[in-house]
UniProtKB/TrEMBL annotation:
Keywords: Signal. Residues 1-22 form the signal peptide. The keyword Nuclease does not apply. This is InlB B-repeat-containing protein. It is found in: Cell envelope. Transmembrane segments: none annotated. One of its GO terms (cellular component) is cell envelope.
């Protein structure tokens, strides 16, 4: 909508700007372009009337609670305030959520809710349903869940945000013992919109452990497992894996564990006949000694930064716990990310190792805690 200069105040305004001293009838013919500002829920910004060919004066940035102003946009492009105005238009504000941690004065140290449990095939799967398994790691408990082979994961939260304090912040308890580490990669996520769930647009960050930057570590690894048909061997799981330009097909053979675990290895609870996992793959450091009749398997611990890995070295209340520092968070491209706190934690199996009769190298998760709420070990 173009506005004719009909009102006295606009006449005066225009006269001041362009120094017109001529009579009203000439001024009346100048058409100003109206530039509106849609602050998209933020504080309002005054409309400007621009002389054709002039530029818009960049207004003071609007404000919006829990949001950072990202700039003014015209037709979804950032607006250039140096551009001469030739028409009327509306500039729209763009906002980014500012994360604010959830503070709970009655916060408890341990997991309060398991949001997701997505096991991969494995020898300990199918003993308990997925729904029942979710209850096992809540609170200060001594039961555990096994995640299955590569990619199997559990996602949980607490009754508050875990702050990124000095040093380690999160304790994740497994059942590792010397020479039997089963590494789980840990990821974290912020509940930007405080709705209690990890939404698709809330990014996950890996807590980079000791192996993250090594050449032998594969990033953006993806594997799909296929459920055996009713007449097929339930201990042979076909898979397809992809990373970089590589695509492989194969079979994971769980038959050596069959004497101990006769039931099917593919999780019964999945509706689909296949399941895909994506993430970082650690090169397995499993090795064995040939004892003639059988092989003795060694699963050495990795240096640091994995669940069910090295917690046997800790004492007291931290016995069995691997410790994690939120400051090790990296984004999908491996860039360091500074997070003041986190709300969701995900742990997934880091290797595809199947150590013959010992079965898949899958982390067990017993419980997890906000380290800042645990009594210190010397108390
Ligand atoms: Ca920290
Ligand atoms: Ca959310
Ligand atoms: Ca295991
Ligand atoms: Ca274990």
């Amino acid at each position: 909508m173009r506005k004719q200069l009909t009102k006295l105040n606009k006449l005066l305004f225009l006269s001041l700007i362009i120094g017109f001293t001529a009579c009203e009838t000439q001024e009346d013919q100048i058409v100003l372009h109206e530039v509106k500002f849609d602050s998209f829920g933020g504080s309002s910004v005054e409309t400007q009337f621009i002389i054709p060919g002039d530029t818009v004066t960049k207004p003071t940035d609007p404000t919006l609670e829990d949001s950072e102003f990202m700039g003014w946009f015209k037709n979804n492009e950032p607006y250039n305030f140096g551009e001469p105005v030739t028409e009327e238009f509306t500039l729209v504000a763009d906002w980014k959520d500012i994360y604010s941690p959830i503070i709970n004065p009655d916060a408890t140290p341990y997991i309060t809710e398991v949001l997701d449990f997505s096991p991969a095939p494995g020898q300990f799967i199918n003993y308990v349903s997925i729904e029942e398994s979710k209850e096992l790691i809540i609170g200060d408990n001594y039961q555990f869940i096994s995640l299955g082979t590569y990619g199997g994961s559990v996602t949980f939260k607490f009754d508050h945000s875990i702050m990124n304090g000095e040093g380690d912040d999160i304790a994740i308890y497994g059942n590792p013992f010397e020479d039997n580490s089963e590494p789980g990669i840990v990821m974290v996520c912020q509940d930007l919109n405080h709705n209690g769930i990890a939404d698709d647009d809330e990014p996950w960050y890996e807590l980079a452990g000791s192996e993250y930057y090594k050449d032998e570590t594969t990033h953006n690894y993806s594997i799909t497992y296929y459920k055996p048909g009713p007449d097929d061997d339930q201990h042979l799981i076909k898979y397809k894996e992809k990373y970089g330009d590589v695509e492989n097909e194969g079979e994971m053979d769980f038959n050596p564990v069959k004497p101990f675990h006769e039931h099917p290895m593919f999780p019964n609870d999945y509706v689909e006949d296949e399941i895909t996992f994506t993430g970082t793959l650690l090169k397995s450091n499993t090795w064995f000694e040939d004892m003639g009749e059988w092989k003795y398997y060694h699963n050495p611990a990795y240096d640091w930064g994995y669940a069910d890995n090295r917690g046997y070295e800790n004492e007291g209340i931290l016995r069995g716990a691997d410790l994690f520092d939120i400051s090790n968070a990296v984004d999908a491209d491996g860039n360091k990310v500074e997070l003041i706190a986190i709300d969701f934690v995900k742990v997934y199996t880091a290797t595809t190792e199947i150590a013959h009769w010992l079965g898949e190298r899958s982390p067990e998760i017993v419980k997890a805690a906000d380290l800042s709420l645990l009594p210190t070990t010397d108390e």
